[in-house]
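Our preliminary data section would be incomplete without showing what the modeling component actually yields. Below, a chain of 304 amino acids is followed by its predicted structure, encoded as tokens that our downstream tools consume directly.
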Amino acid sequence: MAEETTRKEVWTPLKIMQWAVPYLKQKGVPNPRLDVEILISFALKIDRLKVYLQFDRPLDLNELATLRDLLKRRSLLEPLQYITGRREFYNLPFKVAPGVLIPRPETEQLVEKAIQYLTALPEEDRLVLDLGTGSGCIAVSIAKNVPCRVWAVDLSGKALEIAAENAQSLGVTSLEFRKGSWFGALGESDPRQFKLIVSNPPYIGLEEKGELSPEVRDYEPPEALFAGEKGLNAYRELASDLKQRLLPKGVVFLELNANRSDNIIEVFKPLGWKANLFHDLQGLPRILKLENEELIDTSLNISV
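Predicted structure:
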């Protein structure tokens, strides 16, 4: 497009679409037409519907330069969310950036379960810990939907910066951010124990790296993706301290690697807590619920 764009040539959204869709398809982009629509609307600062209403609108040189850069980045398989800097999650707009894991739709189930649990508690008991908060999508979504106090932990300063921006932009003020590794990030002034602990930890095994798409493998932060050769290291680290950090009759919700759910469950069996497994819309095991109850039960109850 760089060579084809001149001052004399008139480019419109329709012409961009006709050129860019086959271009991105050739580069291996999975949904080229949708991506081009999104990039045009982003560059022109209009919603996607107006792209079609303005198909014949001549684009100025600045708009063309912006689109050229956006399309080049997408042709290199950079995630669309990093290019636009945003991702919708639980019906809320979140800022994302390189160095921060892009929120996934399947993680919304974890948020939904957490909100259901908290709603049944007295407000003064709603102490929540989000381990590995990333963009803050879990912590912010929970706090936005139910009054509670949330401590959000991450090892990445970049992630905490983005999470704090998301909390501020969405008007959530009941969050505390802590930098560090898992429970070790909490200070003396923070609660010793929590009623609810949630986490979407890194859970991909290094042996699975070759199975990932280039968009994930080459762009998203490896520390938020990988957890040892089998993808179990983060779960093991969490399991070692959960008994000291969860209040009696408290609950833990963890997102799972669907391919390793049995192995993950084995990691937490020594706790002796009641466990429930919830499946996602594709029928895959996705959320593990652990309950710190007086009644010890190491059996697994399957819920759908």
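Residues 295-304 have pLDDT under 50 and may be disordered. Residues 278 and 304 are 5 Å apart (CA to CA). Preliminary results of this kind motivate Aim 1 of the renewal.
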